[in-house]
Amino acid sequence: MARVGRGGLARWGAHVKNQPDFSTTPRSRRLPLWEIVAVVVAVALLGVALRTAFTTRRDSRAARDRLAAVQRDVVSMRARVQAYGARVAAGGGLLTQAAAAGESPPERIVAQLGRVLPEAARVERLSIVYGEEITLEMRVVARDAIAWDLTLERLEETRFLEEVSPGPEHRDGEVRTTVSARWVESSR
């Protein structure tokens, strides 16, 4: 037997062996394969979830930026539509001008003027302004004063021109002057 010393503890002897204490030493336990696979799958799923979250956040920011740009465009378009509506209400709108040009195209106006002018007169330049009403400005050249008087008389008597007003004229030889008038669409 072992010798017992001062505290009654056994000392080194045949019966006492130096063995580890299993209650305080951690056991090395190897994980089963299915647990390792489960951890790897969980880590992979976490990575996919983080990537999806960041991508979704980036897409959300981009969508908000596009929405803000579209809203700015809508505000700009509304302002343009209101300005356009104000022009149409004032009578100088593009629709009014387009309708007037459709009803009285330049070809019709030139043809009517060609029927009215005598042979001794010609229109050197013609300016047509489409608006609430159609106004004409013509640079007329007549061979002499008699041809000019006949031209002016015919322009004033025609049914498709009103407010015919000749500009300054010189009656020595060839007569050149500017005539302004308002086109009346009763000539159809």
Number of helices: 4
What is the SS-derived class?
alpha+beta
Average residue pLDDT: 80
> How large a portion of the residues is in β-strands, by DSSP E?
15-25%
Largest sheet: 4 strands, antiparallel
Helix content range of the residues, please? 40-55%
User: What sort of overall outline do the alpha carbons produce when their principal axes are compared?
Assistant: rod-shaped
Assign the CATH topology of the largest domain: Gyrase A, domain 2
The strand count comes to 4
List the helices and strands and how they pair.
Layout: H1 33-90, H2 94-103, H3 106-116, E1 121-130, E2 134-142, H4 145-157, E3 161-166, E4 175-183
Describe the structure.
The N and C termini lie far apart (144 Å). The chain folds into 2 domains: 30-90; 98-183, General secretion pathway protein M, EpsM (Gyrase A, domain 2), CATH 3.30.1360. The chain has 188 residues and is of the alpha+beta class. Strand 3 (161-166) and strand 4 (175-183) form a beta hairpin. It has 4 helices and 4 strands. The protein is rod-shaped, with a radius of gyration of 51 Å. It has a 4-stranded antiparallel β-sheet. The longest helix is centred in the N-terminal third of the chain and has 58 residues, at 33-90. The protein has helices spanning 33-90, 94-103, 106-116, 145-157, and strands at 121-130, 134-142, 161-166, 175-183.
